[in-house]
Write a structure and sequence with these properties.
Helix content is about 80%, strand content about 0%. The protein is an all-alpha fold. The radius of gyration is 16 Å and the shape is globular.
């Protein structure tokens, strides 16, 4: 999972989609092998969820939706194995946020791909981001996404308060 994390970080630094895909495609077989070797490692499950999610984002809307179920499955497994790791809690928060924030077009594609499209809510995103923030109060990402989730729900005072804490 450490090699995978390194490839993800390299991908995350790139603005060019082809370069991002290159690093994610290098990471995918490594994390897949790691998962076969040790399926009870929380970090391996976490990084599999991250890579499969990023892979879906880079391959387009349909693939993103197809991969979303695996992201959720492996991220929940990572949380089951280590409920205090803020990274997995954050990923589940992002999963719920992104599903709740799907456009009409994306929901239509999800309905065509699955009889039941994935279900997520801003409330669940908030719960996960709060848990992530409690697990690691020094990571500003948790505050940012918690604030974005409050804003998406129209709770701008709470969003302002949490973003002020981040600053």
């Amino acid at each position: 999972w450490r090699y995978t994390r390194a490839y993800f970080e390299l991908s995350d630094q790139e603005s060019d989609n082809d370069k991002q895909k290159y690093f994610i495609n290098k990471a995918f077989p490594i994390i897949s092998d790691a998962l076969r070797i040790d399926s009870l490692s929380s970090k391996t499950n976490h990084w599999y969820a991250v890579i499969i999610g990023k892979k879906g984002e880079l391959e387009g809307t349909k693939q993103k939706i197809l991969n979303s179920y695996e992201v959720k499955k492996y991220c929940l497994k990572a949380i089951e194995l280590d409920s205090n790791y803020d990274g997995s809690l954050h990923v589940m928060g992002r999963w719920h946020y992104n599903v709740a924030d799907l456009s009409w077009f994306e929901r239509t594609i999800a309905s065509a791909v699955y009889a039941t499209p994935p279900k997520g809510s801003f409330d669940e995103a908030i719960d996960y981001f709060k848990k992530a923030k409690d697990a690691n109060p020094k990571d500003i990402r948790h505050y940012l996404w918690l604030g974005k989730s409050y804003h998406a729900k129209g709770e701008d005072n709470k969003a302002k308060e949490i973003l002020s804490q981040a600053m």
